[in-house]
Each structure stands twice: as structure tokens, then as C-alpha cells.
Amino acid sequence: MAEKRKKKKTTFEERLRSFGSLLMTLVVVLFIQSFFIQGYSTPTGSMLNTILIGDKMFFNQFVYGGSTPRFIPFTEIKLPYIQLPAIREPRRNDVVNFEFPGFRDELEPSTKVQYLKRIVGEPGDVIEVKDKVLFVNGQEFLRPPNMQYVDRNIYPKGRPDSEIFPKGSGWNRDNYGPLTVPKKGDAVTLSKENYLQWDTFIKREGHKIEMKPDGKIFIDGQESTSYTVERNYYFMMGDNRDNSLDSRFWGFVPRENVVGKAWFVYFYWNSEIPFSRFGDLLASIRLDRIGKAIK
Question: Are residues 211 and 260 in the same domain?
Fold first, then answer.
């Protein structure tokens, strides 16, 4: 009888140790993923052909300042987090992953996802697109080597797209701007003409803004003719310019949303092939993608 109890106790202890080991492994993985390296799969073609659908990538989070987990794992429940100091700030031309700030008119994002785009505008930069050609601060932006767009079928200047950011701009994806990316400390002049442009932006920074019938604007109950920007922001675009839902449509990305810098591809297969066709899935593996640096 004593041997039986001892055996049961030993089995329980072994299971407890196994559970503790699994839990510790999970904690270590979450720690590494939060502070140093994060894996990422490409779900869309917005960065073609720099990044292919099916690329599995590593992102360097440490360079921008890794953080403790921002969400409870496998949920969309936000957690308070601690962020380490950045080695350097995000720069123009970096390919980054970031927390989606929400669609143009959303105060809170309706979907908690990370996007993958290229930074084309730093805080204070002036963005303009002329017949699909991107200009930053008056100079043509360096075209990524694998960037693609179709030169024909250009949306002409003066043909507004109602879905473009900011609301009421009269721009479209091919002829856009000029638009200044907000920088911390910038003073923005407010008027009834540009109220719609800044309404959601100021609310996202944590303030109440409203315009009275006489055109006067009030922030937190005080009449205001200007607003001082409280954070730094970035402007993102996909390398597949004709097929990218990016800052042209939903706006600026605050600095704290930028998570990591794209590093390299560690694996590739065609993720559109179902596992039921496992042979075809294996045949789709591309060894030439493995280890490819993302630039």
C-alpha cells in the first residue's frame, strides 16, 4: 500500500515538474518575443515583391526598445507594459511591424492586429504623391528595388477618394498631399475648415474636441485656435503601392505603436495551400528565401 501511495506521489510530482517546465518555457519564449525577437508571417501582398505572401520572418524588437507583453497571450486584452530604452528610433525606409492604430475615423481600432509596412515619413516630414511617385520633403523618395506599381490607370489630381485620409482632403492614393507628419511639440492651427482633419487625431491623444454651430472650436471645454501635438508620428506605405491599405487611407502611426524592425526571412512556403495537400505544401518551400535580409 505504501509503495502504491509513493508511486502516485511520484507520478504527481513528475506531472507537476513537467507543468512547471512547460510554464517556464512559455515565460522564456514570451520574454524573448517581447524584448528581443518576434516571428511574423505575411498575410497580404501589400509589400510585394520585397516580402512575399508566405514569408516567415524575424523582427528585431530590441532596437526600438522591447517591452513586456502588451496583450494577454492569444487574446485581444490589453496589458500595462514596460518598455526598454531604444537603441535608436525608427527611421525613414525601415520596414517595420506595428500595432494598427485603427481605421481613419475610429477612436479605438476595431481589430487588434499588427501591420507590416515601410516607414516613408518621420515626424515633421512632408509627404506628397504625384502621379504615384512619392516625394518626401520635396525630394523623390528612394524607390525600394522590389517596389511595384502600375504606371497606367493613374487616379488624376482633383479626383477625390472619399476613403482617403484625412477626411475631406480631396486627395486620392496616386495624387496625395502635401501632408506634414505630426511631431511632438508641433502647434497645429485649428479652424472650421480643417476641423474634420484633426477631430479624431486629437481625440486619440486623449482630449475632447468639439466645434460649435458658430464655428468656434473647444478642446476639453476651452475655446482653442491651436493644438500642441503630444507624440511623435510616422507615415507608412506598402511597397506594392497599388494594393496597400496604408497611411494614405487610415493615417499616422504613433511612435509607441512601432514594435520591431524587419530582420530576415527564416522560412517560406505557400501558405495558401491547405495542409490537406501536404505534398504540394512541401513542394512550395523556397530555399532561396531562407536567410534573405529584408531591406
Answer: no
pLDDT value of residue 75? 65
Q: Is residue 146 scored above 90 in pLDDT?
A: no
Q: Is 8 among the domain residues?
A: no
Give the number of domains in the chain.
2
Contact 87, 63 (CB under 8 A): yes
**Please, which residues bridge with residue 180 across strands?**
126
44 and 176, same structural domain? yes
Same structural domain, 97 and 217? no
Q: Kindly indicate the confidence band of residue 22, based on its pLDDT and cuts at 50, 70 and 90.
A: low
Taking 50 as the threshold, does the pLDDT of residue 25 lie above it? no
Which amino acid, residue 257? N
Q: Which residue has the higher pLDDT, 251 or 272?
A: 251
Closest CA to 251 of 157, 190, 177, 155: 177
Would you say 197 and 146 are in contact if contact means Cβ atoms under 8 Å apart? no
Give a yes or no: residue 4 inside a domain. no
More confident call, 269 vs 271: 269
283 — phi, psi (to 5°)? -65, -20
Domain that holds residue 138: 36-71+88-182+234-289
Longest dimension (CA), the chain: 89
pLDDT digit string (tens) for 75-92? 667 777 777 889 999 999
Please check whether residues 220 and 103 belong to one and the same domain: no
Mean pLDDT of 115-131: 97
